Amino acid sequence: MMGASRLEQTDALFRKNLVIQRRACKTNCCLILFPLLLCSVIGGLQILVNHASSHDVPTHFDCSCSNVTIDENAMGGMDCASDCPLPRAPKWPPLLRLPPPKYRAVQDGLFPSFTDLPDASCRATWSCPATFLVTGGNQSFVGSVADSMFIAQSSSVNLSVDIAPLSDFVLADDFTFLQNKCFPGLALFYPVQLGNEIVSEEARCAEGLMLWRDSSWTINDEIYRGSYQGNNEKKTDEIAAAYDFLSSDQANFNLIISYNSSNNYDEYLESEYPVPLYDQARSVQKPHSVQVARLSNMASNAYLNLRGNDLKMSFDFVKEMPRAAGHLGPIDISPLIGKLPFVWTMELLFPVILSNIVYEKQKKLRIMMKMHGLGDLPYWTISYCYFLLLSLLYVLSFMLFGSVLGLRFFRQNSYGVQFVLYFSYMNLQISFAFLVATCFSSVRTATVTGYFYIFVSGLLSEVLFRSYVEDISLSRSWIAVMELLPAFSLYRIVYELSQSTWAGSYMVSSGIRWIDLNDPENGLAGVLTIMVIEWCVFLLFTFYLDHFGSFQNGIRKVAALVYSCINGNHFQAAQQNIQLQEFGASVEMERADVIKERETVEQISKESNRSYSVICSKLKKVYHGKDGNANKTAVREISLCMSRGQCFGILGPNGAGKTTLVNLLTGFSKPTSGTAYIEGMDIRLNMDKIYSGIGVCPQDDLLWENLTGREHLMFYGRLKRLKGAALAEAIEQSLRSMHLIAGGIADKLVGKYSGGMKRRLSVAISLIGDPKVVYMDEPSSGLDPASRKNLWTAVKSAKQDRTIILTSTVSRFTL
């Protein structure tokens, strides 16, 4: 028997799938256009952000500030916008950050043992001092240093002529300067340059309170419990800063500084009284980042003051570095909010691929095609190519829509790099779906599992995997191990592209380019390598499990094939002789015709008679009992032979084993013992070759709902090597013999067929292409008497030079 070549099988399957996908064009288009929805949502949000930014920040800046002459005897100058050049930066004094007066530490019952804190009544007048805590190994020395941190001033000071002494004053970010004791009307005046104009700025006096604590642990506890979220009473007793002088004395100076690193105090809010945040646009707020240096300078100067000799270490001013003109556009939200949605969007094809593969498995369409000669390689090739084409269109639409809508995530990174990374992932996703599909036989279960996988894997990527990637202390090898999960590999790609986009928006970076793939910091080269290797491994495992069903079956079958190749044709003869020798212990109650059939099989095996199409040799099938139930024997060591031109009927009630016998002969099921030979080929070893010369009408109608009857016959006819006029003639003959011509039935979708029409189409499929052996399992079920009579007429005329095996119940079988 010579079946269709792999190229012919591929062509037949491609034509059939093309018809199906053409009818599912609307669904496929909606799927491919789904990225447009996501990109449109993000693009719309980006437009809103841009619109809001255009109202908050002027689109055109006055950069005349760049030409302002800086007065050296005044603070400030002109604070230019970031888009303007800044050749001469203004100078500002270093500032301390102090908590607002109403949140400063007081005696409010939170620390009853600390009676040195100010009375809570000061909050009503906003006059609470800023508390600093100190400790160390030498209390008297620490007390002396603490008393010298603030220069005592009894009258107002005007520095309009010379601002150099300004460094002696401890300035705070709320326009105050700290003193151990404030007198009425005490103030500090200093010149500030605003553009080309110089104005006098006033700093009010604020008291700074230095309090001793016995240990750093006590200080730590007081600072922690003084925060709004550090106590159950939800009170706020904020400490400005703390010093631990350790073993400092007159000969050495050691210091630990505790400070508040947050940018605001809103974490200490009371629900109805929000803490006012300072306007970060105000120029005097800029030096916040140097408050640690200012705290250190306060302690250092106090220490030098104790040493005498008028030693002083001044911290006068801070300045920005000169800069060229830059451009800071509106915030790009795509790398901020797009990572998880982008990952979910790219994974969306996984359940689609999975459900499509499992659908043909559940409906047994795959095995139906296989029984009519379709090999594994053409099937997987066409399936893979289709899903790859769908994935390519999906990726291209994703990149296209994102770029057209102006998302920097797509525009800023190299399109070539993006395509290669996404293309590699899509190949991995297809092979992964193929592998997972071998574990399912239900479309509903597979679909639910697929969507559950993309949802959970996406969340784990964002919540868990991202934290590991950003943890520089974690070994990169562990990151590579985690990236073995395809979802994590995809997230790493999207994450690195997002980070590059974000950096490019504010650091004038060009995004990810080809040369950046070699950068070990982004790990993209490793991800690409992992995906390629996994793609190959997944495909190999898929082929193995699909071909052998399990690892154990694969090992046994490979061993049998190797033995067969070594021993050649002697293997089949030996198997027959071994099994026929077991016939000696015959059962006394067997009927004479059964005994005669066994003797015929034995004689045929000795003579190597090739005139018989089907030979069953002690074929047996036992279903093992579960949950303590006994084993059930469905086929009991049957031996029979069928010659060409013979129509062989298998009669019996439901449950007699008729369908099981047909399943054994067609490869649906594996025999427990014994074997059968179809045209001289063993069903245990040569089933793929046997399929090319048989026709099957299974008990259930295994048909595509969205193909017509004619298209079914055209597909299966091509699998039987029919072409052109011969194919058209065979289709017409089959349709006429099964009465599927009248009323245009042949060109209607099978989904609209009645049960009887589907049954007649199944019979027509089994006969097309002149197969040498035809199996018909309950072919007349569901047919009315007239249709049943026409069926038997067609079967009688088709049995010339072929073997037809029919099964039916006793009450219905009438030839």
TrEMBL record:
PROSITE patterns xrefs: ABC_TRANSPORTER_1, ABC_TRANSPORTER_2
Gene Ontology CC annotations of this record: membrane
Subcellular localization(s) per the UniProt record: Membrane
Membrane-topology annotation of the record: Multi-pass membrane protein
Gene Ontology molecular function, alphabetical: ABC-type transporter activity; ATP binding; ATP hydrolysis activity; lipid transporter activity
Keywords of this entry: ATP-binding, Membrane, Nucleotide-binding, Transmembrane, Transmembrane helix
InterPro entries: AAA+_ATPase, ABC2_TM, ABC_transporter-like_ATP-bd, ABC_transporter-like_CS, ABCA, P-loop_NTPase
Domain ABC transporter residue range list: 617-814
Cross-referenced PANTHER family: ABC TRANSPORTER DOMAIN-CONTAINING PROTEIN, ATP-BINDING CASSETTE TRANSPORTER SUBFAMILY A ABCA
Family: Belongs to the ABC transporter superfamily. ABCA family. CPR flippase (TC 3.A.1.211) subfamily.
Entry protein name: ABC transporter domain-containing protein
Organism field: Paspalum notatum var. saurae
